[in-house]
Request: fold
Amino acid sequence: MPPLSGQLQPPSGQAPQEDSPPRRARRAWVALAWLAAAAALFTVFLRVSLTEAVSSDSANNGLQAWDMLHGHLLLHGWIIGDATYYTFDLPVIALTEVFFGLHTITMHVAVSLIYLIVTALAVAIAVTGSRGASRAIRAAVVVAVLSAPLLIPSDRWITLGFPDHTGTIVFLLVSCLLIDRAPARRFTAPLLCVILVAGQLGDVTVRYVTVPAIILVCAYRYLVARKLVTCDAVNLIAAVAALPLATLARKAMLHFGSYVMISPKTKIAPVSQWSHNLKLTWLSLRELFGAQPAPAQAGGAGLIFGYACLLVAAAGIVVALWRWRTASRAEQVLLAAIVCNLGVYVISTLPGNNSPHDILTVLPASAILGARALVPARVASGATALAVTAVAMVAALLPMSLVAAHPPAVARWTNLTAWLRQQGLDYGLGSYWDSSSITLLSGNQVRVRPVKLTGGEITLFPWETNSLWYDASGNYANFVIVGVGKSDLSPQAERVFGKPARIHHQGMWDVLIYNKNLLSQFSRVTLQPTS
Reply:
């Protein structure tokens, strides 16, 4: 089957020339340099990640991946939040658990690896079409912009705190690479459809951002080409087909007993609220680029760096708009994705004072556009190339290196977890933010399950939890952890479960210990699958 369009073929009767030994050696050294840079970047990401304590949100992702690793591929019994990250983040975490087991370090390694993959894909798109020093400079610009939120302590969670749309960007970037570098290959359309279906199963953001962006660009290029059959037409069909196929795949998973999930927050806000949402969007953009520190924090150099990266991103968007007709497919898709993400965000109920993660697509997409707009495909002068490369590398790595020098965070549950293990208390109940954090910190040796008060009864927490944990026939829970003076479980826990055999005070918590299985009087909540 001949290529649909744009495929370069070697002249008839001529075999492709083999690389000479010096050229092969040079390529090997270049590849080694890229690998060394990736390893160094991963080390910095990991060190920055360690400055953030693992929360219960992240711990639950670790527990879900642990279940998948042990054969529970459909996560039966799990009630997951409005984004599951089932098709990328969880498999990456499960792979990490093969080597590190179930522990907090696993999550730090996994989120660092996920951000490294996002960075590598962003660099791969940014350097497309460039040569020599321009490749290194573009890569450095991308890394610098992606490092911007890491310089502000209150913003680090956005990309390296826990899985929260970061891994979802992989589906956009891989799709861009596919339709940009191999738009007319036989495998492109089917593979694109599979990627988009998988992305939608993990995060509804793919349905409302990535898929529309690809559909818009492919439709535009098809109309401009004025041909009946083009590669863009085939890719357009694949992207459109991914929408119903993802719905069918999810229904099939539910039929075979997969996890259930809470309905995503995809409601449209009243038109009267859109102007206020615009203000919140600008706030979220500044937080996303590290240009908006928390009120209690000083801005300093990190704030200036954040605004500089925001200007780079803005320049990339403006140039991409100006060059729209001659832009590559990847550039057009990235620009469309930015517009879709911001547009959906503004008119929805998502905007809030702490929701920059919902527009996370903008960060790598605009970083790529900025690098391609500001750095030419080839820098002619060797001296200029060397100087600009050095400056770009320093701008990319020095700020993160300074952050990486900060001491690692110490989890506030450390002493409590150690005491529970010493006392042989290995299964109990607690509030959401205490439970899975302790479970992960103990390496699953102390399992604390989240509960909440509902109408005077203790019930399972209906978010990021597993209903099988509360089965009294297979589990024995004999303690409750309540926060001193601030927990919604105290003093109600004693009214529900009765007077404990003893109470132990440990730091910020009271541990209520019983001589009975608390699950036997548990009121289970039955949730209907919503998605």
Summary: The longest helix spans residues 21-49. The chain has two domains: 52-395, 414-521. The two ends are 40 Å apart (CA to CA).
